[in-house]
Amino acid sequence: xxxxxxxxxxxxxxxxxxxxxxxxxxxxxxxxxxxxxxxxxxxxxxxxxxxxxxxxxxxxxxxxxxxxxxxxxxxxxxxxxxxxxxxxxxxxxxxxxxxxxxxxxxxxxxxxxxxxxxx
Amino acid sequence: xxxxxxxxxxxxxxxxxxxxxxxxxxxxxxxxxxxxxxxxxxxxxxxxxxxxxxxxxxxxxxxxxxxxxxxxxxxxxxxxxxxxxxxxxxxxxxxxxxxxxxxxxxxxxxx
Lengths: 119, 111
What we know:
Chain A is an all-beta fold. Chain A has no helices and eleven strands. In chain A, strands 2, 4, 5, 6, 9, 10 and 11 form a seven-stranded mixed beta sheet that branches. Chain B is mainly beta. In chain B, the strands form two sheets. Chain B has a five-stranded mixed beta sheet, with no helix packed on it. In chain B, strands 2-7-6-5 form a four-stranded antiparallel beta sheet, with no helix packed on it. Classes of the chains: A mainly beta, B mainly beta.
């Protein structure tokens, strides 16, 4: 089946530093990818929609200057958390929408998530 | 906002069928019903989706009522590995928009 990878799976950083998370679709092309955030015991919250070759669309309340998204190719989107603070500690999950029609049974697939801890 | 309502938790004995209900009374004609599940500390996993007909795959069956206002996900023989949070989501496929998650149902399968 379709595989979406995320790197790193876990990251610990100091307050004030920036962290980049990569999301890759390994066996299909994705013109659209989505970034979610999940706090403990809560559901996934959509942060932004990432479109290849254009600017991301952010959900209300998500700071675009703090969460930088780049979707430079059909298989890679990156989320950079700038000047991270402890309240940014969360589980970040990406999903990729299969735009090539490679998989007939479904079109949106999720990565395994990245656990960010900001000290 | 999520357009679905699910019970917060359910229990099931291993080997028995797990029937997870979902209400989506405001579903529109173009919207599909999707089911995903999330095992602890992992990304969501696709299970099944449908528009109006019942669907079955190797993981589960999806039963959609005739008026499409509710559906039931059936795991025919639950195992301990099926313990997860199950999310029912309605989505217009043509729009290509993101999946919006509600609170889901935490299914606990015990031996």
